[in-house]
């Protein structure tokens, strides 16, 4: 069964959320290695989490993320 777009993004967002460690912000590349998701899937998941207020950017060069 093919997941709905909401299910697809939600599943990926969950993987990214749990990969983020409050003590160590991760880059997109690190998240990709940790979750085995492609960069475009990471981007979608981070967008989902940002929209829900569950992730923040901790540095801008390179971008690093952590969860709230």
Q: Which features would summarize this protein structure in a list?
A:
68 residues; alpha+beta; Arc Repressor Mutant, subunit A; two-stranded antiparallel sheet; 3 helices
**Which CATH-level-2 architecture?**
Orthogonal Bundle
So, the CATH homologous superfamily?
Winged helix-like DNA-binding domain superfamily/Winged helix DNA-binding domain
**CA distance, first residue to last residue:** 33 Å
- Based on secondary structure, the structural category is alpha+beta
Structure description:
- The structure is a single chain.
- The chain is α+β, with helices and mostly antiparallel strands and 68 residues long.
- The chain has one domain: Winged helix-like DNA-binding domain superfamily/Winged helix DNA-binding domain (Arc Repressor Mutant, subunit A).
- Helices cover 53% and strands 16% of the residues.
- The chain is built from three helices and two strands, in the order αααββ.
- It has helices at residues 5-19, 28-35, 39-51; strands at residues 55-60, 63-67.
- It has a two-stranded antiparallel ribbon with strand order 1-2.
- A hairpin with a 2-residue loop joins strand 1 and strand 2 (63-67).
- Helix 1 (5-19) packs across helix 3 (39-51).
- The longest helix has 15 residues, at 5-19.
- The chain is globular.
């Amino acid at each position: 069964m093919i997941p709905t777009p909401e299910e697809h993004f939600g599943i990926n967002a969950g993987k990214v959320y749990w990969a983020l460690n409050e003590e160590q912000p991760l880059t997109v590349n690190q998240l990709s290695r940790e979750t085995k998701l492609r960069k475009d899937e990471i981007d979608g998941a981070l967008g989902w989490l940002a929209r829900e207020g569950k992730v923040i950017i901790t540095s801008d060069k390179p971008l690093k993320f952590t969860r709230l």
